[in-house]
């Protein structure tokens, strides 16, 4: 079985399904941790609709979709913030596909997309409870930095110099 990673328009059905799966997982984890419940369905619909991914289209962004044995399995987005800095976002692999190297391949492909856009630095934010994500970023050479944004769920910030 092999992985393939290709750009995908954020409005495609595949991208929309992956975004919904990503948002459901991270939102449910937050609510279960802090309020002992899953995400309210109405909130889920509002948030999914509010995040169209329009900032993940060329020339300033890119959404990448990973497929495992041809089936959509994960995604990662990268958007150019300025001439030298890109942001990594929406890194997600379906739970059933984890442990097969897909997340590292997605991040690597996002790094390449950032370089191709002229970025020399890749930044991201994540939550403290997303320990798997934090371990992945550290393993891939990202280092924790001072905050670069004030997002409501941003608790940890990372950066990587792109050679």
TrEMBL record:
<dbReference type="InterPro" id="IPR000182">
    <property type="entry name" value="GNAT_dom"/>
</dbReference>
<protein>
    <submittedName>
        <fullName>GNAT family N-acetyltransferase</fullName>
    </submittedName>
</protein>
<keyword id="KW-0808">Transferase</keyword>
<dbReference type="Pfam" id="PF00583">
    <property type="entry name" value="Acetyltransf_1"/>
</dbReference>
<dbReference type="InterPro" id="IPR050832">
    <property type="entry name" value="Bact_Acetyltransf"/>
</dbReference>
<keyword id="KW-0012">Acyltransferase</keyword>
<feature type="domain" description="N-acetyltransferase">
    <location>
        <begin position="17"/>
        <end position="163"/>
    </location>
</feature>
<dbReference type="InterPro" id="IPR016181">
    <property type="entry name" value="Acyl_CoA_acyltransferase"/>
</dbReference>
């Amino acid at each position: 079985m092999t992985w393939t990673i290709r750009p995908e328009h954020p409005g495609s059905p595949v991208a929309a399904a992956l975004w919904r799966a990503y948002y459901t997982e991270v939102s449910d984890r937050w609510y279960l941790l802090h309020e002992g419940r899953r995400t309210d369905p109405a909130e889920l619909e509002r948030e999914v609709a509010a995040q169209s991914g329009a900032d993940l289209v060329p020339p300033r962004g890119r959404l990448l979709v990973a497929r495992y044995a041809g089936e959509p399995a994960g995604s990662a987005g990268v958007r150019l913030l300025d001439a030298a800095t890109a942001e990594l976002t929406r890194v997600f692999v379906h739970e059933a596909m984890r442990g097969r190297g897909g997340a590292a391949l997605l991040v690597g492909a996002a790094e390449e997309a950032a370089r191709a856009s002229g970025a020399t630095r890749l930044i991201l934010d994540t939550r403290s409870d997303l320990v798997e994500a934090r371990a992945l970023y550290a393993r891939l050479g990202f280092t924790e930095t001072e905050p670069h944004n004030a997002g409501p769920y941003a608790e940890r910030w990372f950066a990587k110099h792109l050679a």
